[in-house]
Amino acid sequence: MAVQSYAGPEFLKGHGTENDFVVLPDPRGELDLTAARVRALCDRRIGLGADGVLRVVPGGLLGEELPSDVPTDAWFMDYRNADGSVAEMCGNGVRVFARYLLESGLAASGNVPVGTRAGLRGVLVGEDGRVTVDMGGAAVTGHSSVTVAGYAMSALAVDLGNPHLVCVTSGIGDLDLSVQPGYDPELFPHGVNIELVEPLDERELRMRVYERGVGETRSCGTGTVAAAVAALRADGGENGVRLVHVPGGTVEVEVTPETTTLTGPAELLARGELDADWWRRIGEPVLVTSGTNR
Ligand SMILES: N[C@@H](CCC[C@H](N)C(=O)O)C(=O)O
């Protein structure tokens, strides 16, 4: 019987309101994180299971890819969706990421700067354990529509570094999000995250989300900010605070003229070592008769 060696890359598992992630520390930028490896890690049967992967890499190793406002000495969140695609930003992920930096001694308490493809984000881990991230300004980029189970709804396009289409409607619990909702691919050639939002009163709303590159998830941080922006507009305002209830919990979103903030829990629950042989095998090209093999 083969003896397991482990001794592969270190990993941690964490989540923010049940939007869950595999964290991969990569202090020397040595991990070859192919789309196939991301898909295997996120697979809930053959892998660890997650909505996405957060590779922790020094900003200085990104070279020309590093956004201009991210200092080379900041840690960079290299975010991947469960299908292996790359995304610009992840509001729940960045809060889990900052908690990892603090707990592993890679950052001091206070405002933790985190580099993302959408730019620099400041994250504050509170004494109560709740984590707040300054998400930057939300840009309302237009109007479009979304079709869920044959039912067309108007939607507000909101950009948080990554794209969102938000439908403010009622009865969201009854809508089928098991398949990709329809949207205009000409407006969103790289895909879009879709939020269904139901205001409960003037301070609280409920949200479900179909994430680009993942499917329906139990929470999406950037999505909750987009949802709050759309709900505020539906109420005739632009600024304010909203509690957003998602299937995985509750977060608080504040929208001001200058910026937006997202506050909620972020937890790390496991740390371990991947099996080196498994890591090597899932990185190997799969033999196919046509098309790409990754
Ligand atoms: N879950 C995230 C968003 C992750 C990226 C998204 N699926 C995309 O492709 O833009 C969040 O908490 O914001």
From TrEMBL:
Cytoplasm listed as a keyword: yes
Pfam families registered for this protein in UniProt: DAP_epimerase
GO cellular component: cytosol
GO biological process: lysine biosynthetic process via diaminopimelate
Site entry: Could be important to modulate the pK values of the two catalytic cysteine residues: H164, E211
Function recorded in the entry: Catalyzes the stereoinversion of LL-2,6-diaminopimelate (L,L-DAP) to meso-diaminopimelate (meso-DAP), a precursor of L-lysine and an essential component of the bacterial peptidoglycan.
Full protein name: Diaminopimelate epimerase
UniProt gene name: dapF
